[in-house]
Design brief:
Layout (H helix, E strand, L loop, with lengths): L1 H109 L1 H10 L6 E5 L4 E4 L9 E5 L4 E2 L4 E3 L4 E10 L5 E8 L2 E9 L7 E10 L4 E6 L7 E3 L4 E9 L2
Antiparallel strand pairs: 1-3, 1-12, 2-11, 4-5, 5-10, 6-9, 6-12, 7-8, 7-10
Protein name: Caprin-2
Pfam families: C1q
Subcellular location: Secreted
Amino acid sequence: MTYLRTVQLSSTCITHKKIRPRILQVNVTDMLLVQNILVILVSFSYLISAEQQNKYEVYQKIQQDLESMKFENEARFMKTDIKIANMKERISQQDEIIRQQQELIERLQGNQELQKHTRQVSVQTKVAFTYRTSSDHSSLGSDQTIKFDRRMTDVSNSYSTSTGIFTAPVGGYYAFVLDTRTLPGRICWIDAVKNGVPIATNYMEAPSGQEDSETSFAVVRLDTGDQVWVRNKVYHGHSCGLDDLANFSGFLLYEDL
């Protein structure tokens, strides 16, 4: 019996000696497999993280571009709004000038004294003229006098085509009309002046490839020898150009007694 136990024990020991190396081998293999899987997972997570980072950078770039476009559009709209507001203000000022001039004419026409003067002037001096430009003025200088050299009518020969100046032959109230049109894409500021002082203004701002036109009307009192002419005023350095349809007219409403 003692022998048998010993053999069994020895067998058991032998068996354990054979099993232990196998268990150790299996554990090492599993650990290597787990380690490789972890390496793969970590690498994959890095790839996912890098891809997400790239997507985030692209998203940030798109956001920045959109913000930049938004600011540019807002600035463009603001400039357009300011320009429209300025144009509305100029139109309002011109309307007010026309209204005041119309009121003045109505008061003069409704005045019995004016009717008396009109009857007297009808047998006295007659003044009326209209002149046009015969060609385009492609580049006008600052304060340059615009000469209307094509005569349409001039009953008193009071306008000089060589100087571009009208000289009042008699004292009285005169009416003047200035009609101008720009060359395409030009910006012009044109004044009709009495002895150098503006009495009417045509402001024109033509878009590229298009013309712009303006007409102004003025009633002023002139003494004998007073002069009226049309000149260019350079506006913020812009080069003004007028076509050959510009015209300048004037006539005597009534003469001083």
